Structures are given as C-alpha cells and as structure tokens.
Amino acid sequence: MIEKLALIGIGLIGSSIARGARQAGLAKTIAIATRREETLDEARELGLGDIYTTDAAEAVEGADLVILCSPVGTYEALARRIGPHLKPGAILSDVGSVKEHVVNVVGPHVPEGVHFVPGHPLAGTEHSGPAAGFAALFKNRWCVLTPPEGTDPEAVDKLAAFWRGLGSNVETMPAGHHDLVLAITSHVPHLVAYNIVGTVDDLEHATKSEVIKFSASGFRDFTRIAASDPVMWRDVFLTNRDAVLEMLGRFLEDLSVLQRAVRVGDGEALEELFTRTRAVRRSIIEAGQETAAPDFGRPHENGTSS
Ligand code: NAP
C-alpha cells in the first residue's frame, strides 16, 4: 500500500486511477491537483481524494507516488514546478500517450534520489473530465512502463504492482519502441478517423445529412475515436511526430496499392487483404481486447447486444 498518492490532473484517466486505487485499497491518502477550481470542485463532489489543491507542488509534498495525468503538453512546466518538492525515494510517473518526449522534457527536472518511471495505460474512452472515470477502466488492459536505463528495478516493480492492483497487465519496453508501436496501433488510426470525419464535415450540406442518416453502415465507427479529446490528441501528434510520420508513410503506400487494386478491378488482391484483416480482428477478440458480441456489443431494442 502507498501512503500518499498524488494525481496531477483529474480527468478520465486521473479519476479512474483515483477510483480504482480507492476501491482496491492501494493508497492511504490521495492528493489531487488540477488547473481549474471548477474541476477541483467536481472532483471534491465526486469524493475522488482526500486533499484537493490547484497547486501541483503542494499535492506532491510527501507523496510516495506521483502520477502526471494531465495532457502531455503540460508535463514540462509541471515537472519544473514539482521537481524541487518531490520527496527523496518517491516514484514519479505519468500516463501520457507518448513516451520519448516525456522522458526528454520531464527527465531533466527529476531530482537525484527520485525514481522516474514513465507509464502509459492502454485504456480510455472518448469521454473526458472527472465524472467520466470509472474504477474498472484498466481491468485486463495493458499498462506499458518505459523506465530509462539505470532506473532502480525496485521502483519499477513497485509501480508495476500498483498497476496490477488496478487490474492491468504490465509490460516494460524502451520509450522509443513504445512510440513506434503506439503510432500504428493508436495514433495513425486516430488520424485516419479525424480525417474521414473531417472530410464528411466539409461535404456540402445535402450529402452530409445523408452521411449522418446512413452512418451505421461504417462511418459511425470512425466517429467514436474522432470524438476523442482535441487537446490530448493535438499533443500526441506534436510530440510523437517522427514515429507517426514513419507509420503514416507506410500506411499511405499501402493505401496506394489498395487504390490501384480498386482502379484495375483486382478482386483477388482485395479479397486476400480483407481475409487477412478479418483474421487480425479475430485474434484481437481471442486476446480479450474486444468483445465478440455482434454489432460491437451495442445494445438493441430487445435488450440483448445482438
Ligand atoms: P482529460 O479527461 O481531459 O483530463 C485532463 C486533466 O488534466 C483535467 O483534470 C485537467 O483539469 C487537467 N489539467 C490540464 N492542464 C493542467 C495543468 N496545467 N495542471 C494540472 N492539471 C491540468 O484527459 P485524459 O483523457 O484523462 O488524459 C490525460 C492524460 O492521459 C493525457 O496525457 C493522455 O495522453 C493520457 N491518456 C489518455 C487516454 C484516453 O483515452 N483518454 C488513454 C491513455 C492515456 P482542468 O479542467 O483543471 O484543466
């Protein structure tokens, strides 16, 4: 059990950690810091912690585990602010969706004797804010830790145990590798979704209303991730540029191949790809990363999800 946990930022991810930690008895005291008074009031009303402040430095005072849960673009200034107030022996972590950038901007502000272990829970929804969180968000989801070389293994184990306590499976890898993997599994898919929804939004009015009306035929599923938080995703693309461009390049090459197959009517190539992609979907379900329920588990009128 952690004596004092400090969460800086109390939106979807921060409030889910607070709820999960409370439910599993992982921390005696939870201190919450956020930027705006309104958000702090909301967190207080929801009973997410024990100490509430708009000063991150005050929240981390005496904390054994500090987790940055705000948008990645705020990390550098926050690290500069809290650095001198971190307790020797404390673990400083984060939940940011990119890792190399975090190591570069936070690392220099971590004082001697404080263990810096960046992390990224691969869990989320398209909702934001303190009320959006729930304790089970991390259950059976991966949490990737990217400790810089030379990090005390005991600190890594302690943080891994914390995430396991929240229900996550934990994996450790270098920050750069994390960024490449996430570029293709998360960042490029979001960019594609933002793009296709943006294209529709630019269509002339009559066509657009038809797209909305008939969206259940495929478009709807892109709109879920294209509704994700704009600030968070702006920061992802500003801070994982190289890996995203690398994966986007490969994506565009493959798209050109598909475009050609459509143009020349190469049914064999199309069917071969669609058969392979169907198998990928099956393996995701088998790995417990998605429901096998029809219509992606959406409830229907008869109360079932089929
Ligand atoms: P969110 O719901 O929008 O919450 C962000 C929180 O950060 C809010 O409480 C906000 O409070 C606070 N904040 C903003 N600027 C701040 C500052 N300068 N100092 C202190 N607090 C500040 O976002 P989220 O979805 O929880 O995402 C937070 C982090 O989790 C991001 O780094 C993101 O990369 C990572 N992440 C997100 C997901 C996901 O699917 N959403 C998944 C994995 C990881 P105010 O209202 O006071 O500004």
Description:
The protein has 306 residues and is of the alpha/beta class. It has 2 domains: 2-173, 3-Layer(aba) Sandwich (Rossmann fold); 177-265, 6-phosphogluconate dehydrogenase C-terminal like domain (6-phosphogluconate dehydrogenase C-terminal fold, Orthogonal Bundle), CATH 1.10.3660. 50% of the residues lie in helices and 12% in strands. It has 12 helices and 9 strands. The strands form 2 sheets. Strands 3-2-1-4-5-6 form a 6-stranded parallel beta sheet. A 3-stranded mixed beta sheet has the order 7-8-9, covered by helices on one side. It is globular, with a radius of gyration of 21 Å. Bound molecules: NADP nicotinamide-adenine-dinucleotide phosphate.
Provide the CATH topology of the largest domain: Rossmann fold
In sequence order, what are the helices and strands, one letter per element?
EHEHEHEHEHEEEHEHHHHHH
Query: Which consecutive residue ranges, at least 5 long each, have pLDDT under 50?
Result: none
Number of strands: 9
CATH architecture of the largest domain: 3-Layer(aba) Sandwich
The portion of residues assigned to helices is 40-55%
Q: Please give the domain count.
A: 2
Question: What descriptors fit this protein?
Answer:
306 residues, alpha/beta, Rossmann fold, 6-phosphogluconate dehydrogenase C-terminal fold, 2 domains, 12 helices, 50% helix
List the helices and strands and how they pair.
Layout: E1 2-8, H1 12-23, E2 27-33, H2 37-45, E3 51-53, H3 56-60, E4 65-68, H4 75-82, E5 91-94, H5 100-106, E6 115-116, E7 119-121, E8 142-145, H6 153-165, E9 169-172, H7 175-202, H8 205-213, H9 219-225, H10 230-239, H11 241-264, H12 267-286
Parallel strand pairs: 1-2, 1-4, 2-3, 4-5, 5-6, 8-9
Antiparallel strand pairs: 7-8
The structure holds NADP nicotinamide-adenine-dinucleotide phosphate (NAP).
